[in-house]
Design goal:
Helix content: 25-40%
Number of strands: 17
Distance between the termini: 50 Å
Number of helices: 10
Radius of gyration: 22 Å
Strand content: 25-35%
Amino acid sequence: MMHNNKRVLVAMSGGIDSSAVCLMLQEQGYEVVGMTMRVYDLPRQFAEGETDPDFIRSARELADRLGIEHHVADVRKEFRESIVTYFIGEYEAGRTPNPCVCCNRDFKFRLMREWADRLDCAFMATGHYVKTETAADGFTYLLMGDDVRKDQSYFLWRVPQQTLQRCIFPLGPFEKPQVRAYLDEKGFGVRAKQGESMEICFVEGDYRDFLLEQRHDLAEKVNGGRYVNTLGQDLGQHRGVPFYTVGQRKGLGIALGKPAYVVRLNAEKNTVVLGDEADLQTTAFFAENAELVNPEAFFADPNLTVRIRYHSNPVTCRAEILPDGRLLVRTTETLSAVTPGQSAVFYSGRRMVGGAFIASQKGIGQYL
């Protein structure tokens, strides 16, 4: 399919980063087409008497000012059916979801590709702090952004090759303060002073309140579960597996005379296993549904590292495939609170080479 090589579709969230992207690409001679996704409405996004949320008004205003085409994709229904349902379901299954990872692949970048095709745009651009490179092996890789604190490659491991090949990430070489300064300099000072967006766009405050709001029968359904220690001995009652996450220490509502941590969750039995900090530590874990850019190179890579949560440091590791298709990942350093449902994202230097979902750690003992 041939597209207009000068047209680029920009995901406009109305915030600092995507605003800077529009300006930068316009300066580089691209014909910018803006697209804003309306996925979930929160009450605080509406000014009095307004029917559109503030981020859509902000994006539209910028598009007017820059003289660019602007479209709104209202996908609230699909988003609720797919991402919100997944989010709640993961907690119910005793896992901790990674909604941004799923949204980027199944929603954000899929929609962008569909709209780019429809609007005759050869390229797509977002305000993520990452870079891409096409390597000698013919694959397109994501690279960590230069601003290590803002690098967002962790959330993008499931974006498919054919999409990445059409993506432009103008903010990869910049640090956040430089982006603010750039907007300021271009006469967009008000935008430069905007705050950061939240981690999960559809949850305000504690995720537990969100679960209760969405599933009115949940508290009743999961009530009466038991806390047990690592030997399986009963310690008392808890609120239900969905309200806990591996590594949690606060808000357990139980006094054991020493700090207790959530070590494991069993949704089928509705039990929460408590232990001490040492019980959370491991040098091996299982991961499933892996997507590796170049599997051959991946398993042979001597510089392989892994991050098990967004802000964690990459740790040297090696990985192998088990007969059932899961990955067994061994690390040179001790990891703490490996959390099922979260992402394990693999790197070789600054290059992101694959990812997988952290699986249940049942049976990992035999590999330690």
